[in-house]
Amino acid sequence: VHSAGVIRLVLLFVTLLGMWFIMKTYFHHTWKAVSLRSWLGEARLPRHKCGNQKSCPQNYFAFKIISGAANVVGPSICFEDLVLMSSVKNNIGRGLNIALVNGDQGSFLPQESFPRPLHTPPSDTFLPSFRMNDKVRAYFTELGSSHVGELGFRDNWVFLGAKGLMNKSPFEKHIKNDQETNKYEGWPELLEMEGCAPRKMD
Predict the structure, then answer these.
(1) Is 114 in a helix, a strand, or coil?
(2) 65, 172, 194, 196: which has the fewest C-beta neighbours closer than 10 Å?
(3) What is the pLDDT of residue 117?
(4) Where in or outside the cell (predicted)?
(5) pTM, full prediction
(6) Where are the alpha helices (DSSP H) in 91-160?
C-alpha cells in the first residue's frame, strides 16, 4: 500500500510538472502570439503615396525625389503616387533629370519627363540647355531655388519649385561634391526629399 501511494505521488508530481512545462512554454509564447494575431490581427503600417512616411492633406500633392548616387542608385521622381522617372522606367540619365507637372483644379497631369538636357523644348515651355549657364540658373531662381547659383560639377541637388513662385521654395536640398566628404568615389551621397506640396504655391 505504501508503494502504491508513493507511485501515485510520483505520477501526480510528473503530471503537474508536465502541465507546468506546457503552460510555461506553449501558452507563454505560442498562445500570446496566436491570441494577438487572432484578436488584434497583424499590425500593418498604412501605405502613403510615393511610399512617404505620412499622408498629405487634401489640398496638397505628395512627392518624393531621389537624387541618385554615382552608378549605385539611380535618380527617381514620384508625384501623387505616380513614378514619373526611375531606373525601372529607363527614362533617366546623367545631368539634370526634370519632370514638368501641370496641376489643375486638384488634379495633376505630367506633361513630359526629361531625363536629359533638351535643345528643343516643347512650346510655351523653357527648359535648361546643355550647360548650366546664367540664364538657366536665373530660371530656376524664378521657380524658387536658393541653391542653383552655387551648383557645381557633380553636386547632388533635388528641388521642387513652381512657376510664378514669389518666395523661396522650401523643397530643396543640395550637397557639394567634396573629395574629403564624398560617400562614393568622386560623388557625394544620395539626397532624398519627400513631402507635401500645396496645390498652389505662392
Answers:
(1) strand
(2) 196
(3) 37
(4) Secreted
(5) 0.66
(6) 134-142
